[in-house]
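pipeline/complex-builder :: batch 7 item 3
reading input block
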Amino acid sequence: MSPGRVTLVGAGPGDPDLLTIKAARAIAQASLLLVDDLVGDAIVALASPGARIVYVGKRGGCRSTPQAFIEKLMLTAARDGETVVRLKGGDPFIFGRGGEEVEHLRAAGIEVDVVNGITAGLAGATAIGVPLTHRDHAQGVVFITGHAKRGGTPTDWRALAATARDAHLTLVIYMGVAGVQQLQDGLLTGLPAHTAVAVVQNASLPDQRSCVTELGQLSATMAREQIASPAILVVGEVARSAALAQSMREQAAAMSVSA
Ligand code: SAH
């Protein structure tokens, strides 16, 4: 039997309308889908009725399925000739362990394709009207994790703050909710306390929430607003346009109430 193939598919930030056509096609053609936590039911529903669906995130059991087990499952299924889709939130190559999985499968001689998804940092910023680059405010953008691998190199917030300040970069922080106080303290060594920060939880989903604050107030604001994971943080001048977009929405809502 010819070996099957594995496709790592980015499911985007949650809204099924943000899937790519290529992703939707790959999902529909899969005989086995391994689904991560952050992938919603509306997206999984695009699978063919005969497909086998395995949830490998926390909702599949009490704890996430160990990575080694997922990799083994993909390998065995591909060797059995299955068309395997590994469905991941956002983009598979942005904090999705896609790189590790591709290396593992290729080392075992399995063909792997990767289909991009819209990463949460991009979708979250756009959802609140924030352009991540802007010729007047930000010459570039850094996607960075607030939660390094256990035992790995911790993020050097001090160096990052200095670079963001000197090179005019927007910082988009993933997985930053739990360690927000630490990242706030670190960034304040190089960025002013009044630096704008926008926070978006559940970007693109019906229960999306967001707030705009300043770096010096970040962890206090997030605690007060009860922001929980999954959320992204956008740090930099461009985040101010979220406040502007918000006040315009509020004005429009007030006008429609009074009309
Ligand atoms: N591969 C994913 C990221 C996985 S890491 C991607 O490209 O988007 C998980 C982190 O992504 C979460 O802790 C959160 O920071 C972010 N995230 C994922 N989905 C999100 C969403 N809908 N809204 C806000 N942040 C989200």
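note: The beta strands are 5-10, 32-35, 52-55, 83-88, 112-115, 140-145, 169-174, 196-201, 209-214, 231-235.
queue -> next item
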